[in-house]
Amino acid sequence: MRADSPPSKQARPDQRPDHCHVVIITLDNHLSGAVDRARVRFQKSGLPVSIGFHAAADWDKPGTLEATRADIARADIVIVTMLFLDEQIRMIKDALTARREECDAMVCLMSQSDVVKMTRMGDYRMDAPPKGPLGWLKKLRGTSKTGAPNSGAAQLAVLRRLPKLLKFVPGTAQDVRAYFLTLQYWLAGSDDNAFQMIQALVDRYAAGPRKGLRGKAKVEAPQEYPEVGVYHPDLPARMSEHLADLPRQQGAVGTVGLLMLRSYVLGKDANHYDGVIRALEARGLNVIPGFAGGLDQRPTIETLMMRDGVATVDAVINLTGFSLVGGPAFSDAKAAEEILTKLDRPYISAHPVEFQTLQQWGANRQGLLPLESTIMIAI
User: Fold this and answer.
1) Which of 100, 197, 208, 330 could form a disulfide with 326 if both were Cys (CB 3.0 to 4.6 A apart)?
2) DSSP string of 173-242?
3) Burial classification of residue 379, based on how many CB atoms lie within 10 Å of its CB (0-12 exposed, 13-18 middle, 19 or more buried)
4) pLDDT tens profile 57-89
5) Is the distance from CB of 79 to CB of 116 less than 8 angstroms?
6) Are 167 and 149 in contact, with CB atoms under 8 Å apart?
7) Is 141 strand, coil or helix?
8) Which residues of 32-42 are buried (b: 16+ CB within 10 A; e: fewer)?
C-alpha cells in the first residue's frame, strides 16, 4: 500500500512566481509604521505582495544603501518620494535608471525634477511632452512668486479635483489619474491609505506572471482627513476639525500654539508631539496643537491661532522641522515674515532631532547632522 504524500507547505509570498515586490524609497521613516502595518495586512490576506521600505536618511549606516540598491534591482513596482537633495539622488539614480524599463511601474512623487521625470506608469512617461489632459499636471507646480497666498492649498484643491475629472477621459489619462491618486494616498498616509496605495498600484500595473493579481481585491479610494485641524492624544480619534474639542485647563497661565505635520499624526508617529504637549500642559498652559495638510502652515495659524486678525495664543512653536511656508522643496521667507508680523507673538522654530537619537546627538560634537542642518536651518 502506497504511503500518503506529506502535506505540501504553502509557499511564502516571495517564493511564488506571481509574487509582486513593491519598494518604497523616501526621505525618512515617519511612515514606516504605516507601511509595516500594510505589510501585515497583505500577509493576512494571502496575496503574494511584499513591501520594501528604505529611508534616505539611513544611508549613512553600514549596509543600508547597498540594501536599498539591491531592493530596487528586484522591485516590480517602485515608489520614490521626497528625494530632493543632490547627494541622496546620486546614490541611487543609476539603480533607478537601470530598473525603470524593467519594472512594472515607477512612480516618483514630490522630488527633484530629474527624479520625478523618471515616472513610468503604463503608457504614461513623465519625461515625454505633455499633451491634452496630461498638461494638467503643470497645475500642481508651485508658484515661484514670493508671498503668493496659500499656493499650497490651491495645489491640494487641484489634486483632489483632477482624479474625478480624469475618471472619464480614456487612454493615457487613466495612468495620470493613477499618479494623482497615488499622491493623494501618500499625502494622507494613514494605515488604510498606505495599504490601499500599494493595492491600487498592484491592481493596475502588475504585469507578466503577476498580472493575475489584478482584480483580486477591492481597491478603496483615498480616505480623506481634515486639511486643517487639531491633534491631541486625549481626543477619541486623536484629531478633530474643531478647536472646541481640545481639552482646556481652568486657570491656565497662558496658551501656546504648536505647529505639526499631519503626516506624522496620520502615520501614528506622534510620540514626540505628545511629549511636548504633556510638558507644556504640566506647566499650566493650554495648548493648541494644530496641523495643515501640506507644508504651508499659514492656514493653521490663521484658522486656529487667530480670530478676526488678532492672535489668540501667547506664543507659537513650530515642531515641523521645516520652514513656516513651503517646506524643503520651496521656501517662501517673505510670506512667513508677513504672517508672523500679523501674528505678533513670540515664535520658536524648534529643530527636532529628526534623523538621529538623542544619545547620538549628545555624543556628536557637530550636533545636528548635515542633512538636518540643510532641511531645518539652511532651507
Assistant:
1) 330
2) HHHHHHHHHHHHHHHT--HHHHHHHHHHHHHHH--GGGGGGTTSSPPPPPPP--SEEEE-TTSTTSEES-
3) middle
4) 899 899 999 999 999 999 999 999 999 889 999
5) no
6) no
7) coil
8) bbbbebbbebb
Of 115, 119, 161, the closest CA to residue 136 belongs to: 161
The residue behind cell 539611513 is 58
In the DSSP assignment, the letter for residue 100 is H
Contact between 117 and 109 under an 8 Å Cβ cutoff? The reply is no
Q: Residue ranges per domain, the chain?
A: 14-213, 228-378
Q: In the block, which residue shows the cell 508680523? A: 341
User: Which residue type, as a one-letter code, is found at position 195?
Assistant: F
The residue behind cell 518604497 is 24
Cell numbers 550636533 correspond to 367
| Burial of 342 from C-beta contacts in 10 A (0-12 / 13-18 / 19+) | middle
Confidence of residue 39 (pLDDT cuts 50, 70, 90): very high
Place of cell 524599463: 101
What torsion, rounded to 10 degrees, do the Cα atoms 329, 272, 35, 75 define? Answer: 50
Model pTM?
0.83
> Is 3.40.50.2300 the CATH number for 228-378?
yes
Handedness of CA 23, 272, 304, 235 (dihedral sign): positive
Per-residue pLDDT tens over the stretch 292-314: 988 899 999 999 999 999 999 99
- Nearest Cα neighbor of 77 from 190, 188, 210, 192 is 210
pLDDT in tens, 220-269: 999 999 999 999 999 999 999 999 999 999 999 999 999 999 999 999 98
User: Would you mind telling me the total number of residues written for the chain in this entry?
Assistant: 379
What are residue 81's DSSP bridge partners?
109
Asked if residue 217 lies in contact with residue 203, where contact means CB atoms within 8 angstroms, the answer is yes
Rounded CA separation 303/324 (Å): 15
For residue 15, the tally of other CB atoms under 10 A from its CB is: 9
